[in-house]
């Protein structure tokens, strides 16, 4: 099976389409390329299955393309149906879960093949790299700040990347403050300080911030993540110069119904 060379134009464009268009328009722009991968990881993907899911075990349909076996996924259910031409079994999963489960299996990922401008074929090596990037934890370090200033010199895409990442962290912290920082040893950088963060959520917040920095094209170590309480004296100093992000607060929980495979991040589905 070989994917069509010229996919038809959809009736509307998705966020993944826009990220792909920006990447194609500037093939030498590493930040645009990283932004596409970030959008793929953060969005929901509809994975075509061989058969209906059974519990937490699902079997993606594997296509033997010229470049090797490929699993197909789409950023909209309608696009999956357009590809198959008839109702077909599928599962909706976060892109990062799909990437993590397929990495290391020698299988590629076809995204929106033949049905959208964002038609993309990710080789197994690309999936392995993306899974490693998403799975890497930020390093811990200690350094004493001596001065703060307004954030400056950061990539243009970083603020939007942080805004998108923090918008999905509702209820995990009250706010986040981004400011330039100078350390005791004379080195300079930036702080992203989470204020009143839920203790159990701190590793996830640090990882989300690290991914946003990485996918924006910023240099490694450009932003250090710290966690502060509202009454910490340093918060007042930071607030005078920092760019503030107010995290959305969650609404009252709705009644729980059946849980779809992969919806619980602590129990990812088993792809076989």
List keywords for this structure.
elongated, alpha+beta, GMP Synthetase, Chain A, domain 3, disordered N terminus, about 25% strand, Trna Endonuclease, Chain: A, domain 1, six-stranded mixed sheet, 13 strands, about 270 residues, 8 helices, five-stranded mixed sheet, 2 domains
Tell me the CATH superfamily of the largest domain: Uncharacterised protein PF11572, DUF3234
Return the CATH class of the largest domain: Alpha Beta
Helix content: 25-40%
* CATH fold-type name of the largest domain: Trna Endonuclease, Chain: A, domain 1
Q: How far do the termini sit from each other?
A: 22 Å
- Give a count of the beta strands, DSSP E runs of length 2 or more: 13
Task: Write down the secondary-structure element order.
Answer: HHEEEEHEHEEHEHEEHEHEE
Point out poorly predicted stretches: 1-10, 252-258
Derived from helix and strand composition plus strand pairing, the structural class reads: alpha+beta
Strand content: 15-25%
What is the radius of gyration computed over CA atoms, rounded to a whole number of angstroms? Answer: 21 Å
What is the averaged pLDDT score? 83
- Please outline the major beta sheet: 6 strands, mixed
Which geometry do the CA atoms define? elongated
The total of helices stands at 8
The CATH architecture designation of the largest domain is: 3-Layer(aba) Sandwich
Number of spatially distinct domains: 2
Can you offer a commentary on this structure?
The protein is an alpha+beta fold and 272 residues long. The chain folds into 2 domains: 15-135, Trna Endonuclease, Chain: A, domain 1, CATH 3.40.1350.90; 145-246, GMP Synthetase, Chain A, domain 3, CATH 3.30.300. 31% of the residues lie in helices and 24% in strands. The chain contains 8 helices and 13 strands. It has helices at 15-25, 30-42, 77-84, 95-102, 124-135, 156-167, 202-215, 233-239; strands spanning 44-48, 57-58, 62-65, 68-74, 90-94, 108-111, 120-122, 145-149, 175-183, 188-195, 223-228, 243-246, 270-271. β10, α7 and β11 (223-228) form a beta-alpha-beta unit. α4 (95-102) packs across α5.
């Amino acid at each position: 099976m070989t994917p069509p060379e010229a996919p038809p134009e959809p009736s509307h464009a998705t966020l993944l389409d826009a990220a792909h268009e920006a990447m194609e328009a500037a093939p030498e722009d590493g930040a645009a390329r990283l932004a596409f991968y970030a959008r793929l990881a953060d969005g929901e993907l509809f994975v075509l299955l061989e058969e209906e899911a059974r519990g937490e075990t699902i079997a993606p349909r594997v296509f033997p393309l010229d470049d090797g076996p490929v699993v197909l996924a789409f950023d909209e259910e309608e696009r999956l149906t357009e590809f198959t031409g008839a109702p077909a079994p599928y599962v909706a999963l976060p892109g990062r879960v799909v990437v993590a489960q397929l990495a290391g299996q020698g299988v590629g990922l076809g995204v929106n093949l033949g049905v959208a401008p964002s038609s993309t074929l990710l080789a197994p090596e690309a999936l392995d790299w993306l899974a490693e990037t998403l799975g890497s934890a930020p390093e811990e370090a200690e350094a004493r700040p001596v001065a703060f200033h307004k954030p400056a010199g950061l990539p243009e895409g970083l603020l939007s990347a942080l805004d998108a990442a923090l918008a999905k962290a509702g209820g995990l912290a009250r706010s986040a403050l981004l400011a330039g920082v100078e350390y005791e040893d004379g080195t300079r950088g930036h702080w992203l300080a989470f204020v009143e963060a839920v203790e159990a959520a701190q590793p996830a917040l640090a990882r989300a911030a690290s991914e946003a920095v990485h996918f924006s094209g910023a240099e490694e170590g450009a932003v250090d993540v710290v966690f502060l309480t509202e009454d910490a004296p340093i918060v007042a100093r930071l607030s005078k110069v920092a760019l503030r992000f107010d995290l959305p607060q969650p609404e009252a929980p709705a009644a729980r119904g059946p849980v779809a495979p992969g919806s619980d991040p602590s129990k990812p589905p088993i792809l076989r």
